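Design request, tokens follow.
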């Protein structure tokens, strides 16, 4: 399956998710429909309810962290959220940047953009907007944002090198990103990696953690920091759909694993007169 086919799968699945409630996403196979016994999609997501700016209509339970928690967003900042969905992280960021700042959400799924725009209309924010676009080729100008955030989206992007190159391009000098994402440690079995449903909803698009951090560093980001990592416990009855008995034993032995991580990195301006 090539990159464009994978993007079509992701777009199709998340178009369906946009029409579901958070409760439906929590009781479906990685948020993509169909009963999965004891599977609860909140094994990936974090609780946003106590955060300023939280809007329940925008929370579809699709995240794997809270990137704004470590993003060092300041009042007046211009913030970009990649894969903004129904607008959950955008509205949390808007509570931080205030009236003087600006928040832009980027998504390539029409249904998600419609939902986010409708949520924003109810809130009446004039400094929050949503743009249709591909993370690998963002329709946004260079050096525009102080902070880029993303929540459990970049693992779904086929070319992560292009994605982080685009993040570097749209950041202002001395700007930074903070993303929550899914990575793996060790070799994930091919049956799990290649399955299209798992790719669109969960972990198969994830790459090995050291490779992920290497891509970030190769794009020139500095002070790359892993702020938080949490092992994802995938229920046995779900894994049995994809793994043989021997592969399942290997998975459970912790030789390999799936983790949510929150990572940040800085775009440093060239030194002038000995200072950044």
């Amino acid at each position: 399956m090539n990159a464009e086919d994978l993007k079509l799968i992701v777009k199709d699945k998340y178009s369906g998710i946009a029409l579901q409630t958070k409760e439906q996403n929590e009781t479906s196979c990685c948020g993509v429909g169909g009963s999965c016994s004891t599977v609860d999609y909140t094994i990936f997501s974090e609780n946003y309810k106590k955060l300023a700016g939280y809007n329940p209509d925008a929370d579809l339970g699709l995240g794997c962290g809270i990137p704004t928690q470590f993003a060092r967003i300041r009042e007046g900042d211009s913030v970009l959220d990649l894969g903004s969905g129904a607008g959950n992280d955008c509205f949390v960021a808007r509570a931080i940047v205030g009236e003087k700042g600006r928040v832009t959400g980027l998504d390539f799924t029409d249904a998600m953009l419609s939902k986010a725009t409708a949520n924003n209309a109810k809130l009446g924010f004039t400094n929050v907007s949503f743009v249709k676009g591909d993370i690998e080729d963002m329709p946004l100008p260079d050096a525009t944002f102080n902070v880029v955030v993303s929540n459990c989206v970049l693992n779904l992007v086929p070319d992560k090198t292009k994605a982080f190159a685009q993040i570097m391009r749209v950041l202002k000098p001395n700007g930074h990103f903070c993303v929550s994402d899914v990575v793996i440690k060790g070799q994930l079995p091919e049956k799990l990696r290649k399955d299209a449903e798992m790719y669109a909803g969960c972990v198969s698009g994830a790459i090995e953690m050291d490779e992920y951090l290497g891509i970030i560093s190769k794009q020139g980001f500095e002070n790359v920091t892993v702020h938080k990592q949490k092992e994802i416990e995938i229920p046995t009855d779900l894994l049995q759909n994809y793994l043989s008995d021997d592969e399942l034993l290997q998975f459970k032995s912790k030789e390999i694993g799936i983790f949510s991580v929150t990572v940040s990195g800085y775009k440093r301006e060239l030194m002038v007169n000995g200072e950044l």
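Comment from the thread starter after seeing the answer: thanks! The mean pLDDT is 85.
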